[in-house]
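The passage that follows is intended for readers who have already worked through the single-chain material. We present the inputs for a multi-component assembly, then the predicted structure in tokenized form, and finally a short commentary. You are encouraged to pause after the input and sketch how you expect the pieces to fit together before reading on.
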Amino acid sequence: MYKVISCLTGRRAAVSGQSCSWSGSAKFHLAGGASSQKSAFKQPTEDLPEMPPCNFRPEQYKGMSKERMMEIRKRNCSPMTMKVTYYKKPVFIHQGYMQWLWDVDGTRYLDLFAGVATVSVGHCHPYGRRKAAAGQTVAHHQHLPSLLLSRSSQGVIYLTNSGSEANDLAMLMARLYTGNFDIITFRGSYHGGSPQTMGLTSNAAYKYPVANGLGCTNTMCPDVFRGPWGGSHCRDSPVQTIRDCGCAPGHCMANDRYIEQLKETLVTSVPNRIAAFFGEPIQGVGGAVQYPKNFLQDAYKLIRERGGICIADEVQTGFGRTGNHFWGFEGHDVLPDMVTMAKGIGNGFPMGAVVTTPEIAASFSKGVHFNTFGGNPVACAVASSVLDTIREDGTQRNSLEVGTHLMTELAKLRDKYEIIGDVRGKGLQIGVEMVKDKASREPLPADAMNEIFEDVKDMGVLIGKGGLYGQTFRIKPPMCITRDDADFFLAVFDKSLHNYMEKR
Ligand SMILES: Cc1ncc(COP(=O)(O)O)c(C=O)c1O
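Having made your guess, compare it with the prediction:
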């Protein structure tokens, strides 16, 4: 007898069958031993991967019914809320613990999206909570800037309440410092939803038909999978693209071509003197898009030649998520003039920051700027605890180890399924780009994406979607996930792809 997770309720039901191991420690349980096959995908259809165990017991949910919550959502919440109710059968989360979430019915999910890379060290991390609640808020208030700066370069720090606010401030400071106005970002980027940052953001889904972001110009994203150029050595990732590469060792033709595009933007679309270039080390909402290895180095040089400063948006990539480094920009071997951060710093608590040089910061002191809650003592206590926890839990190392394992195994699924076009990323900032077929690289249509997405959820794993065409599955979990969790997801994803291919 084996315990099998029911894909609908997530509760355990006893059925008879055999277990067989898959890719490390994840196990399949053959329901009734049935194994009906239609295609070459050698996998039984009835068996479901077993979720790794968890000792934590959530409280019983005693709140309002799902129907009532849905009614309120439809009637009283902004229509946006319904738009982002991701699933056909929505999940109503009740409680979280580390990488696990429970819905109001007590069904457990492995969270591989972490509120869009926001929960860094784990939901309700016991150590972090204890520390944050210890009441030393004022001490933390003093302590946080030095703690943060010890993890970045020498600098000056401004504390904010969100990433958009941090980027708004960064835009303002860049303009005041340089005396220039124009700011360049990559197409496909997301840097915030405020009227100013909406101009930095280059994704139609997040733009509104109102005047926004005057002075922002978007340039071609050097996307080595979907873009016009890319080969099989371009990026800093355990997995390269499936594209051919004719480059000699040490040379990257794709980088040259994309730099030419940036040069063209500089000579056609902005004045000779510019204020800044904003770039994420790995494009997050865009679908974990990576650039050729030397691109940012070359781009920073061009920007600085025109008087601009270089700004790294680390809202998603910071705090060890990319594995080899604490900050994503370090992987590109560049030193930005300004770094903006949010999300992971608060592990779910609203918090953001801008770190820059004393010279750039000085230009800001000509006027008065304040925000009521930025850097409030409670937020500082939380953020200090998060930084301590990252160090004490070995979170960055775990990102590297589990993320590398996950990507390497996902690449095997890419080789197995025609509809996986690309697997990429670093550490636990991972994208799996889905295509109609590998030859065309055309995005997999939304209905197919939704079907796989729903199936993965029904088997107990929450992932994200992104990319300009909603074609990329995004995996950016709390950085405490284990190799067993990764194997469980791999088994679930394999099965959901198999299910989809069987029906197609
Ligand atoms: C890279 C990046 N920058 C900025 C932001 C904006 O942060 P916030 O939602 O905290 O305003 C986001 C949010 O998703 C982001 O992903």
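Commentary: Residues 116, 162-164, 167, 190-192, 280, 284-285, 313, 315-316, 342 surround pyridoxal-5'-phosphate (CB under 6 Å). The first strand starts at residue 2 and ends at 5. How closely did your sketch match?
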